[in-house]
Amino acid sequence: MRNYSAFDILGPIMIGPSSSHTAGAARLGKVAKVIAGGEVKAVKFYLHGSFAQTYKGHGTDKALVAGILGMDPWDDRLKTSMEIAKEKGIGIEFIPADLGDVHPNTVKIAITKKDGETTTVMGSSIGGGNIVVTEVDGDALEFTGMYPTLLIHHIDLPGMILKVTKVLYDHNVNVAFLKVFRNSKGADAAMVFEVDGNIADEVIEEIAKIENIKSVKAINI
């Protein structure tokens, strides 16, 4: 039998009518912004399922934009996030889309930064303000955003996990969850570490120096 917390019963602190359509959407937007980094020039939100059908009525549009602006679900400015984004010169577009066999509250967020680089993040709002991110820049992975998270892209070779965990051990970083994803043996792969404390810059820099590591991103929220 599952043990229920007060969060499960009462739901998240938030602005808006729906934990799935507003609180979860704001968290998805904020995680996507952290992954992309840099200054945002424009964002396209590809909305799937019930997100596409009810995004205006439930405030999903305002919540997603609020997340892109770095707001939390309980930030009172969420109500005027569209206006704030316009004032900042950020282009916003909402596009109904079929994203395949995914949760009905799913969005793919394409963020174009002022340097011209585009980052895509796909994730779902699964209820109670909880989310799961399932894709970054076309690579399948999975994490919840509940913990500080390391996203590491690398070549699938023996010893890669050992080398990364050695750095984390040296910096006293405790791993809560670890998942590894790969396209095929010896090809591109991804490690996702969810850890118990914020990830310092020196940890990221040290991991980035490991041979056959292609990229490292830290999500400290």
What topology does this entry show?
Layout: H1 6-10, H2 19-36, E1 40-47, H3 49-54, H4 60-68, H5 81-87, E2 91-96, E3 106-113, E4 118-127, E5 130-136, E6 139-143, E7 149-155, H6 160-170, E8 175-182, E9 188-195, H7 201-208, E10 213-219
Parallel strand pairs: 1-2
Antiparallel strand pairs: 1-3, 3-4, 4-5, 5-6, 7-9, 7-10, 8-9
Helix pairs in contact: 2-4
The H/E string reads: HHEHHHEEEEEEHEEHE
- Helix count equals 7
> What kind of sheet is the major sheet?
6 strands, mixed
Identify the CATH homologous superfamily of the largest domain: D-3-phosphoglycerate dehydrogenase, domain 3
Could you tell me the radius of gyration in angstroms? Answer: 18 Å
Structural class of the secondary elements? alpha+beta
Spatially, the strands of the biggest sheet line up as 2-1-3-4-5-6
Helix content, binned percent: 25-40%
Classify the beta-strand content into a percent band: 25-35%
Q: What's the architecture of the largest domain in CATH terms?
A: 2-Layer Sandwich
Q: What value does the average pLDDT take? A: 89
Looking at the structure, the CATH topology of the largest domain is 60s Ribosomal Protein L30, Chain: A
Amino- and carboxy-terminal Cα gap: 31 Å
Shape: globular
- How many domain regions? 2
